[in-house]
Amino acid sequence: MPNNEPAIHTEALTKTYRYTEQQPGLAGAVKGLFRPDRRERTAVDNLQLTVPRGQIIGLLGPNGAGKTTTIKMLCGLLRPTSGELEVLGHRPARRGYEFLSRISVVFGQKSMLWWDVSTYDSLLIHREMYAIPKARFATTTKDLAERLQVQDILNIPVRKLSLGQRMRCELILALLHGPELLFADEPTVGLDVVAKLSVRTFLAELNRDLGTTIVLTSHDMNDVAALCERVAVINHGRTIFDGDLDALRSRADAGVDADLDQVMSKLFTEAADV
């Protein structure tokens, strides 16, 4: 893909879930069997988003706003109901190897490491999955381990690591194959102050040194302030703001040093009143 093409581009991206509601009790079960009460819920509604290569963008919103659904469509885990979606020049829902080898996802609340073996053993499995040459594997593992300061714990079973140690090892696993695009979903959730700072510093260096595009979802506004040059705020499946942090504060009629949690709270309150 030419460097002047965006990493992510969506046009009227929409995801609708169809489901049935059932009344309690035996009568409700029987009625649901013969006359199901079918409903629809729009999780993402006409999302317009273009992310240039090399940018760190924060995808923000309250729980249930549509962030996770959006990320899953961008990764190819969900197929859009309608609209256009292109990531690194590919249609994500096709889940082709060339596409998957150029992206990665790290979840703060879901481990991708094998629990009962060491991080290094999980890295060896990923080396085989992505057909990484041994020399490149050794160099990349050493570089990432040094950057994240985990050289001494790679051979310890994952279940014996602290949450902060595990998160740093998760990042090594996610970045082992050298993805161009990283989806970081709540990467600092539950971490202490020192561990959070370590993860933030690493992500900033990854973007600066390698030009990795990063899509960050986080409820920690300190993560956002430290990393994101741009934020897109989603509420009820729709984008209600897209711009930098200064513009976000201005939108909420707040000062340049206003607390971002208060700014976001005001923005959501105003959106609910519309």
UniProtKB/TrEMBL annotation:
GO terms for cellular component: plasma membrane. Coiled coil: none annotated. SMART domains: AAA. Keywords: Antibiotic resistance, ATP-binding, Nucleotide-binding, Transport. This is ABC-2 type transport system ATP-binding protein. It is a peripheral membrane protein. Residues 8-261 form the ABC transporter domain. It is found in: Cell membrane. It comes from the Bacteria. GO terms for molecular function: ATP binding; ATP hydrolysis activity. One of its GO terms (biological process) is response to antibiotic.
